[in-house]
């Protein structure tokens, strides 16, 4: 490192300024390249592998805190938690039993119709490495990576619904882009009537942009993934519409979504593994294997994300849901439509598979 | 004149600053996290400027970008600007009393946020929400204790 204690102060000043300009230029160049072009990505990925030990160390206190809290929990707390969990399990079992019959029936009907099976789903539990990355980006670091078979593009869910997707995989960690990240968009439909929209991340919230004025979208509607584009499987809750107002041009509505998943809490998430396995054509004799895996998305599809532990809500959730798949002709009579009318039923059976 | 009796303190303090930046905080406290790295760098710039310079700030910034997952070069830019200003005004700043120094540090951190916001705006990246503008104040409040502790560690004195 050259010393700045030169003889002439003026010459020193100029040299210092030149050095500053050089480094500023370098930094700005790096930023532009990182922002606009992709070829820095591989270098970046290698660099991030390099800083992983630091992530691990920074994640330690949170891990320690969790284990301390687990250790210090009193008997009464544990009993209480146990009771709550048992209640939840009971309700979920009842729901599952109900859904299994529905799933069997669904499979049989699909068989009758000769419709392609959309592939069943498998999940993998992934602990969150609790560290804070850059605050302007909504991301999450997971404690497992390529070592446990994580791949880029996997959808990430929690008990409530969709959280995001895996965007980077390192040997021992992976990075999840949350739904709220400004770079994130997910194709969705309104669960009630199948209107198709796109939900964009906006930093700390999720926004439904360009909702046609005339469309039948209301505050309180549950929004689920549509499965279009093939990245996310259909039927996972994304959120509930909490606000709906005209945008600047007053030609469209802009909706705000309350995320169904708990994006900022929890210690673990689920990674969806897509298993493309065509179902036996008709009347499966052994529904247990396929149904267990299918139950997860279909349970999510009921839109009951509150997991209320009361018998009355459970009963209503368990009750059969009429297939609300009317062809949504309400859509758009005066506004120019860019999208074709929604498919009448069955979440996009010919959906492109990755 | 070898004033630094503990050469390991510089890398150690930088490492601790990086870890403090990564440490998870409750959601409510998250926006009040000070920019530890800049504060620690400012300390070393004032006290042992012969060991660090613009080059150090730049590479530290790039490393920090990797660590925090921010845009590559963003923190390099911010730290370079900060280092440059400190280099220019070091002779005056060094003899300021601590409260006045913390005012200056607060100003520098505010300037740093402005640079970050401008850079993000230019590149079409999201800008931090308004609540983040408290961090310079917290940085300024933290400066005197940090200064005293680092000084004590560096010179081997009892706090």
Characterize the structure shown.
The complex is a heterodimer of chains A (354) and B (159). Chain A is an alpha+beta fold. Helices cover 34% and strands 22% of the residues of chain A. Chain A is built from 6 helices and 12 strands. In chain A, a hairpin with a 4-residue loop joins β3 (155-157) and β4 (162-169). Chain A starts with 8 loop residues before the first helix and ends in a 36-residue tail after the last helix. Chain B has helices at residues 9-22, 36-47, 54-68, 74-94, 98-122, 135-155. Chain B contains 6 helices and no strands. Chain B is mainly alpha-helical and 159 residues long. The longest helix of chain B has 25 residues, at 98-122. Chain B is globular, with a radius of gyration of 15 Å. The chains are: A alpha+beta (354), B mainly alpha (159). At the A-B interface, α1, α2 and α3 of A face α1, α3 and α4 of B.
Strand content of chain A: 15-25%
Question: What is the count of DSSP helices of chain A, taking H or I runs of 4+ residues?
Answer: 6
How would you sum up the global shape of chain A?
A: globular
Secondary structure: helix percent of chain B: 55-70%
Give the end-to-end Cα distance of chain B, rounded to a whole number of Å: 24 Å
Largest interface, counted with CB-CB under 8 A? Answer: A-B, 47 and 51 residues
């Amino acid at each position: 490192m050259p010393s700045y204690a030169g003889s002439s102060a003026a010459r020193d000043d100029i040299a210092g300024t030149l050095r500053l300009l050089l480094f500023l230029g370098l930094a700005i160049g790096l930023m532009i390249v990182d922002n606009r072009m992709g070829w820095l990505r591989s270098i970046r990925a290698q660099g991030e592998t390099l800083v992983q030990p630091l992530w691990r160390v920074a994640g330690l206190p949170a891990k320690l805190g969790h284990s301390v809290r687990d250790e210090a929990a009193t008997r009464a707390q544990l009993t209480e938690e146990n009771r709550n969990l048992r209640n939840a399990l009971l309700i979920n079992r009842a729901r599952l039993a109900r859904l299994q019959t529905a799933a069997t029936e669904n499979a049989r009907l699909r068989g009758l119709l000769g419709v392609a099976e959309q592939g069943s789903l498998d999940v993998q539990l992934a602990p969150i490495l609790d560290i804070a990355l850059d605050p302007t980006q909504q991301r999450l670091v997971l404690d497992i990576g390529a070592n446990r078979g994580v791949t880029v593009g996997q959808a990430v869910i929690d008990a409530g619904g969709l959280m995001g997707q895996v965007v980077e995989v390192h040997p021992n960690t992976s990075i999840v882009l949350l739904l709220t990240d400004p770079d994130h968009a997910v194709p969705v439909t309104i669960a009630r009537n199948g209107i198709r929209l796109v939900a964009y991340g906006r930093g700390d919230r999720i926004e439904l942009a360009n909702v046609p004025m005339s469309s039948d979208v209301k505050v309180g509607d549950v929004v689920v993934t549509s499965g279009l584009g093939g990245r996310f499987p259909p039927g996972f809750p994304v959120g509930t519409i909490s606000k709906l107002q005209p945008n600047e041009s007053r030609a469209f509505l802009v909706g705000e979504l309350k995320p169904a998943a708990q994006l900022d809490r929890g210690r673990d998430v689920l990674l969806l593994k897509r298993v493309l396995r065509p179902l036996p054509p008709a009347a499966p004799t052994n529904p247990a294997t396929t149904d267990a895996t299918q139950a997860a998305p279909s349970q999510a599809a009921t839109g009951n994300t509150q997991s209320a532990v009361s018998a009355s809500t459970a009963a209503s959730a368990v009750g059969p849901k009429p297939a609300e798949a009317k062809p949504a002709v309400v859509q758009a009579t005066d506004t120019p439509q860019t999208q074709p009318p929604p498919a009448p039923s069955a979440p996009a059976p010919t959906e492109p598979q990755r | 004149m070898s004033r630094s009796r503990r050469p390991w303190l510089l890398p150690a303090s930088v490492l601790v600053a990086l870890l403090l930046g990564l440490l998870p905080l409750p959601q409510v406290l998250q926006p009040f996290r000070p920019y530890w790295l800049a504060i620690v760098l400012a300390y070393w710039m004032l006290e042992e400027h012969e060991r660090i310079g613009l080059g150090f700030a730049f590479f530290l910034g790039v490393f920090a970008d990797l660590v925090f997952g921010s845009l590559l070069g963003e923190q390099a830019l911010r730290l370079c600007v900060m280092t440059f200003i400190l280099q220019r005004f070091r002779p005056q700043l060094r003899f300021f009393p601590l409260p006045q120094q913390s005012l200056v540090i607060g100003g520098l951190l505010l300037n740093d946020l402005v640079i970050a916001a401008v850079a993000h705006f230019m590149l079409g990246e999201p800008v931090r929400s308004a609540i983040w503008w408290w961090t310079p104040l917290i940085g300024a409040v933290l400066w005197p204790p940090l200064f005293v502790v680092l000084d004590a560690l560096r010179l081997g004195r009892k706090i």
